[in-house]
Amino acid sequence: MITRLEAGGPNAIAVTNGIVGDEWTLWIVELALTDGLTQYNEWLNAGPISTAVLTTRLTRLVQADVLNRESGHYRLTKRGRQMWPILLSMWAWEQKWVNDPEANLPEMRHGKCGNIFSPLLACEACDSVVAARDVRGKFGPSGGWERSIPTGVTRRRAHSGSRPTELVTQTMALIGNRWSMALLGAAFLGATRFGEFEQRMGAPPTIVADRLRTFCDIGVLVASPNPQRPNWVVYRLTEKGRAFFPVVATVIDWGHRWFHAPEGPALRLTHAGCGRTFHPRLRCSECGERLRGASVQVERSPVKACSGT
């Protein structure tokens, strides 16, 4: 069932980031999708999650209609089952661009061709593979910076010894904080100068500076002197930063699919290649076929049991 948002309130981007911008929420959805977990104690025994955190996250997922609670079981709704492209895109980006020795990211096997694959981002309209540079974006009727930023800090950072066993650490650095997601969106929509980020994010200068520094530290942005004004610095997306676009695209598409503002979509994306509205679809890197949730097999390496408080 589609959720109807209030006019003038948080739009689909803000609501969606409030759901996916949390490590434990993604972990719960992942295990429901890949391992079929449905009971409270199954998640409690699957990782170092506290009862308080698990209860809070399950309640939020039921409220967001990602899970349905019935007879003591939490089962994925259609909305929840359609989150798999988001997870695949996150895993693929982390596997290629992040060297995290603690991560135990799963491998993805395409059941149709039998090969381990990496998902390719494609345009639904013309079926061609696309990159960030091929897609143009502008705010739609319910867009705008203020409405697109979650109303609170959505991320509760997991502490050492109490973290999901499958980690997407740098993904969370990019989307697990309201200001991080705003800065990332500003970068993809063309912001390059400090003042542009500050104006579009509506954040205090100290927060903008901190987020820019973090993004540069992990190699998503690079700072360089402005050739026209040597005292100014410009921030541009690196190859690693541009490669994060499939995550952004699948998150936005999922949000627009399930959360509708009365004014219309929050963001309009257009594929420059075919000139039509861009909706992301994932293809297998090995056989080129379109991926479907039922045809993706997730394979994990064994991990040592970990304990938490």
TrEMBL record:
It comes from the Bacteria. Transmembrane segments: none annotated. This is Transcriptional regulator, HxlR family. It comes from Kibdelosporangium aridum. Keywords: DNA-binding, Transcription, Transcription regulation. Gene3D superfamilies: Winged helix-like DNA-binding domain superfamily/Winged helix DNA-binding domain. Residues 9-102, 163-263 form the HTH hxlR-type domain. GO terms for molecular function: DNA binding. PANTHER family: TRANSCRIPTIONAL REGULATOR, MARR FAMILY, TRANSCRIPTIONAL REGULATORY PROTEIN. InterPro entries: HTH_HxlR, WH-like_DNA-bd_sf, WH_DNA-bd_sf. PROSITE patterns: HTH_HXLR.
